[in-house]
Amino acid sequence: MQTAQRPRVLIIGGGFGGLETAKALAKAPVDITLVDKTNHHLFQPLLYQVATAGLAAPAIAAPTRSLFRHQANLTTLLAEVTNIDAAGKQVHLSDGSTLVFDHLVVAAGATHSYFGHDDWATHAPGLKTLEDAFEIRRRLLFAFESAEKEPDPEKRQDWLTLCVIGAGPTGVEMAGAFAEIARQTLVGEFRRINPHDARILLIEGGPRVLQAMPETLSAKALSQLQNLGVEVRLNAIVTAIDAQGLKVRGPAPAGVLGSVDYTIASKCVVWAAGVAASPLGANLAKNTGCQIDRAGRVVVSPDLSVPGYPHINVIGDLAAAFSHRPGKQPTAVPGVSPGAKQMGHLAAANVLKRIAGKATHAFRYADYGNLATIGHNSAVVDLSTPLGPLRFSNRLAWWFWLLAHVYFLIGFRNRLVVLMDWAMAYASFSRNARVVAGTLEKPEHVGES
């Protein structure tokens, strides 16, 4: 007698959404395949700490296979999906092979957006992967090394001008870390330059930093950045980036009235201004006729499925999703890790409901608030509570930010390592992950951590 085949669930992406989906299906009578183009899950909220030498890569990453070693109904594959055949219920991989599915959850995440100027990526790397973090760390530390051996004062200052484009959470945290490295970590380590002379510029096209936060906290974040010595340029639009620096259109930096075009000479530029969905969003639109927004995200149904294809769910940064609560207008779900995890949990529940022939549920997002750190004892917190918003900043906010991030890290070892590294850094401003591979002329990332 032939045994009926169990439903096959395919999950694309091992980020927060993909992991949550897989974990929620651990005891379900299904066969799961998790496909990701890297072999690790990455805790992205702390990726900037790797880029700024505060943490080593293993502290915020965990091998995907080890996370699911005890989940017998899950198979992990290291592969890249290039095409989704929605009607045929199969996906094509970059090596030419295919995988079939009964239910598909696409959690492929997002990448950088340079707003049509992809050539800028060479001169201003973004921060989404460990490779990005290693490259930013290399450029940052080697900027000081290059300045140390540069005899020309003007050219030396080009190396000591560090620019971060975009004042969202990543940009603010990066600029604050750059300032602490220059003002604290590297003090006394050079003989020809004073790292304190480094200029840290944070360039934002909008009217304020951390625009997703209330104006009061945005103003406090701006003040804390300035206290660290960060020069913040608001309403400043970057119009060009090359090996020599960038061109900006905005208010004159010296206080001259009106808008002007000016050039900033810099050898170290980091991009934190734009996000675009995975190319799989456009692939789904081509193969299913679904809509995508300007960022390439798939406009999903209330239950997170692709319209007309109930067996396909899109979650996380790839989904243009809305929260649906009775009696209220749908509200857009922000692209943050809590949203991705909640979507993953609902996607798993809805897969099981479809298998059982039951009606699916619409997504309801629980907004717990936003956090951002600026530097030692400097942070802003905006929490949503049953009694209303709770907002605070400075030292208390920094400790809250620290404990929250340690709590959500995956694995006891990672939590312990991060706590130890942060304790040492708090006492001494040291950054122990400052070893980079390669030379000034030839970057080499193999073996970095």
Could you describe the 3D structure shown?
The protein is of the alpha/beta class and 449 residues long. It has a domain at 118-273 and 377-428: FAD/NAD(P)-binding domain. Helices cover 30% and strands 27% of the residues. The protein contains eleven helices and 27 strands. It has helices spanning 16-24, 47-51, 64-67, 130-148, 153-159, 169-185, 215-227, 280-288, 337-355, 394-408, 412-428; strands at 8-12, 31-36, 40-42, 61-63, 74-78, 81-85, 90-93, 98-100, 103-106, 110-112, 161-165, 199-203, 230-233, 237-242, 245-251, 259-265, 268-271, 275-277, 298-299, 305-306, 309-314, 319-320, 322-323, 331-332, 369-375, 378-385, 388-393. It has a six-stranded mixed beta sheet, with helices on one face. A four-stranded parallel beta sheet has the order 13-12-11-17. Strand 7 and strand 8 form a beta hairpin. It is globular and about 75 Å long.
What topology emerges from the helices and strands here?
Elements: E1 8-12, H1 16-24, E2 31-36, E3 40-42, H2 47-51, E4 61-63, H3 64-67, E5 74-78, E6 81-85, E7 90-93, E8 98-100, E9 103-106, E10 110-112, H4 130-148, H5 153-159, E11 161-165, H6 169-185, E12 199-203, H7 215-227, E13 230-233, E14 237-242, E15 245-251, E16 259-265, E17 268-271, E18 275-277, H8 280-288, E19 298-299, E20 305-306, E21 309-314, E22 319-320, E23 322-323, E24 331-332, H9 337-355, E25 369-375, E26 378-385, E27 388-393, H10 394-408, H11 412-428
Parallel strand pairs: 1-2, 1-9, 2-5, 9-21, 11-12, 11-17, 12-13, 19-22
Antiparallel strand pairs: 3-4, 6-7, 7-8, 10-18, 14-15, 15-16, 20-21, 23-24, 25-26, 26-27
